[in-house]
Amino acid sequence: MTLSLFGRTQPTRQAPLNFLVALVVGILINPGMVIAKDVTLSLNGITLNANLELADNKTIGDGIILITHGTLAHNKMEIVATLQSLYKERGLSTLAINLSLGIDNRKGAYDCAVPFNHRHTDAVQEIAAWIEWLEGKGADSILLVGHSRGGNQTAWYLTEHDNERVRGAVLIAPATWDYDKTAQSYEKTTKIPLAGRFEDMKKLILANKGNEMMQNVTTLYCPDATVTANTFVSYYEDHPLKDTPHALSQVAKPVMVIAGSADTVVADLPEKMSKISSIGVRFEVIEDAGHFFRDLYAEDIADLTEDFLANLP
Predict the structure, then answer these.
(1) In the chain, fewer beta carbons within 10 Å around the N or the C end?
(2) pTM of the prediction?
(3) Is the domain of 208 the same as that of 127?
(4) Please, are residues 269 and 263 in contact by the beta-carbon 8 Å criterion?
(5) Summary mean pLDDT of the chain
(6) Per-residue confidence band for 277, with pLDDT thresholds at 50, 70 and 90
(7) Measured between alpha carbons, how far is 312 from 92 in angstroms, rounded to an integer?
(8) Residue-number span of the structural domain to which 217 is assigned
């Protein structure tokens, strides 16, 4: 068992039963002690859910971090849950959102057997909805954090919104984009040229059949998926904002990008970031960290975030 001591988790000996009873009673009568709380909102007829974690003796009005997960993942995956815990130790409250991916009240990782009826940019709308929800709860200081594809979607949000309550963003191994490399990888995996499949999907959209389901179409990490043409085009169209370093040129807020030197998923991120000269963009590399920043590498992210927040205007 562990207890929080001045915001740090410390090991303890086995607690006596009367102490455990008192702790449980304290949690029940003191909402400020609640470790986590699932919250929901409705958007376009779909229920969105998120995990709200308030730091000790803090409210949403004291400032909050909104965290967005990566491709087909969820808000309780290891890196997100670890960061929520580490941020709380540092007195920082968090809201880890679960992107719907077109599913009502979605929980857990996306099941490839579920038909794909969602778009890359749906996340931008959902991030905006959660920010509005936070504002309604009294938030006037919001930091955005996004991992992998969620990092790109966070940057994309910032290119379209200049909300004064959003102070900036931390993008953790955010997605990069290179159509030629994507096409080569797609054909290597599926033996089907991406350009041909993409054009077939575009024709369906032009024929007002963009929402019809197509079977056995490899999409993202899922082989032989059932997918709409609208979904496929959204994830594979050659859009410049899909490349996070490029998107940053259109972002007015302060941004910190964090890369792992051993990351093979976005291996080109350091090279692309080396070409960014914006004064509002800070770039950090965590040595030997992979794409998911496991173990102590997550501590490095939390420390960098705390420093970034402390130096925001």
Answers:
(1) C
(2) 0.89
(3) no
(4) yes
(5) 90
(6) confident
(7) 15
(8) 180-235
